[in-house]
Design brief:
This protein is of the alpha+beta class and 142 residues long. The protein is built from three helices and nine strands, in the order E-E-E-H-E-E-E-H-E-E-H-E. It comes from Clupea harengus (Atlantic herring).
């Protein structure tokens, strides 16, 4: 499955074949289908890359190895410098390994993503291998 682009950053695509439950998609490396309005950002506050990297700060780094299925990886990336996880499909591969909303994307397959926008991060995921390794930072005050 090749990369696709969304009509605008405020759009979300849902897709699932065979009448099964819809998977949250759009720049999360899933199929294509109708375009729906995207909910507002899930972030409580915007965070800078410097804040995420401050030693002793209120964030913990987590590393996930996510094997994409026939639909994708099961999460939505949004934002810019740093990107964050906007949504996680409750039945998808990302949820199965522990990914959660409001985590900040640090790297994708060893490539630093702290200064990238969500379209660039999505492109890294879409054009990479089916198994991705993502480092994220998660707030300790969830």
């Amino acid at each position: 499955m090749g990369p696709r682009t969304a009509p605008s950053p405020s759009k979300e695509v849902k897709s699932r074949s065979g009448g099964q439950p819809s998977r949250v998609t759009d720049h999360d490396c899933h199929g294509n289908s109708p375009v729906l309005n995207n909910p507002k950002s899930v972030l409580k506050k915007q965070v800078s890359p410097e804040e995420l990297q401050t030693p002793g700060g209120p964030y913990i780094k987590r590393t996930f190895t996510i094997v994409g299925d026939d639909v994708g990886w099961g999460f939505v990336v949004r934002g810019s410098a740093p990107c964050h996880i906007q949504a996680v499909d409750p039945s998808g591969p990302a949820e199965a390994v522990g990914m959660k909303v409001r985590q900040f994307v640090v790297s994708v397959n060893g490539i630093n993503a702290l200064s990238l926008d969500y379209r660039t991060v999505s492109h890294l995921i879409l054009t990479g291998p089916r198994t991705i390794v993502m480092e994220v930072m998660e707030s300790l005050d969830r």
